[in-house]
Design a protein that fits this description.
Blueprint: E1 4-8, H1 34-44, E2 48-52, H2 58-69, E3 74-79, H3 88-95, E4 101-104, H4 123-131, E5 135-138, H5 145-154, E6 160-162, H6 176-185, E7 191-195, H7 209-222, E8 227-229, H8 242-252, H9 258-274
Parallel strand pairs: 1-2, 2-3, 3-4, 4-5, 5-6, 6-7, 7-8
Helix pairs in contact: 3-4, 5-6
Family: Belongs to the metallo-dependent hydrolases superfamily.
Protein name: Amidohydrolase family protein
Domain Amidohydrolase-related: 4-273
Length: 284
């Protein structure tokens, strides 16, 4: 079964549409391309990836699709489109013609209105996504989870992926409400959980034990068939780097069967993102 990194980025600072990416970000405030990622993928035995947006512009979506077109390694792209545009559904219809587009990700965590997900105007674009088998990547914070549950219930035909476990507050340990919301969200069959982005949530110099409660809980709720692993590279360079996070994930999942681990490290990503769109993962 092909190993897939279900969540990484690339960026070119000169494009100037990464509002969150400032000099204060230190190690990641520079250009990152697929050539920088290649050694990490090789070391981890990863053959395919899902390239995820990092800027809230349609221009970046085109930029990522063009990159993906030039390499077999990128199996699909999760892009961004303007869900607030009056013609958002029509834009999705148009972009859906690009076969390497496998999903869309509004940057909900950066939207000032905490109730944005509940806007009735989102119904049409979300229905368009479902028609085209596009996945909704939910980049949310813990406070958004109750709203996300409502959206998931409104769109049972749309596949949702919870990015980064919904970013539990691991640094403070205040995760009781998060655990309740994760348990509720997991009862919805059209949601899966992405084991990604956790390295930047605990206090600095984190150890595997700092992540175990959250991972064990999400795994108990979603099960190994509804969890996918992603690196969140190069953001992960802020908190240990690719190899450290990959080794931590392997340790956290060590008690699972080899079949379950294979599903999390690739099989589930192929099913969720690539069963009807993107590049196939079967070997010939």
């Amino acid at each position: 079964m092909m190993r897939i990194d279900a969540h990484h980025h690339v960026w070119t600072l000169a494009r100037a549409d990464y509002g969150w990416l400032t000099p204060e970000r230190g190690p990641i405030y520079r250009d990152f391309g697929l050539a920088d990622l290649a050694p990490h993928l090789a070391a981890a035995g990863i053959e395919g990836t899902i390239l995820v947006q990092a800027a809230p512009t349609e221009a970046e979506t085109v930029f990522l699709l063009d990159i993906a077109k030039g390499t077999e390694q990128v199996r699909g792209v999760v892009g961004w489109l303007d869900f607030d545009a009056a013609d958002a559904a029509a834009r999705i219809d148009a972009f859906a013609g690009r076969e390497l587009l496998v999903g869309l990700r509004p940057m909900v965590q950066d939207i000032a209105d905490d109730d944005w997900l509940l806007r009735p105007e989102l119904a049409a674009p979300l229905e368009a996504m479902a028609r085209h088998d596009l996945v909704f990547d939910a980049l949310v914070l813990p406070r958004h989870l109750p709203r996300l549950i409502q959206v998931v219930d409104r769109h049972p035909d749309l596949q949702f992926v919870l990015d980064h476990f919904g970013k539990p507050h691991l640094a403070t340990g205040d995760i009781a409400a998060w655990k309740d919301d994760i348990a509720s969200l997991a009862t919805r069959s059209n949601v899966v959980c992405k084991l990604s982005g956790l390295a930047t949530e605990p206090a600095p110099n984190w150890q595997v034990a700092d992540l175990s409660e959250a991972v064990d809980h999400a795994l108990a709720c979603f099960g190994p068939q509804r969890m996918l692993w992603g690196s969140d590279w190069p953001v992960v360079n802020l908190a240990g780097g690719y190899a450290y996070w990959f080794a931590a994930a392997e340790c956290l999942l060590a008690d699972l069967s080899s079949e379950a681990r294979a599903a999390i490290f690739g099989g589930n990503s192929a099913r969720v993102y690539l069963s009807s769109r993107g590049r196939p993962t079967s070997r010939k």
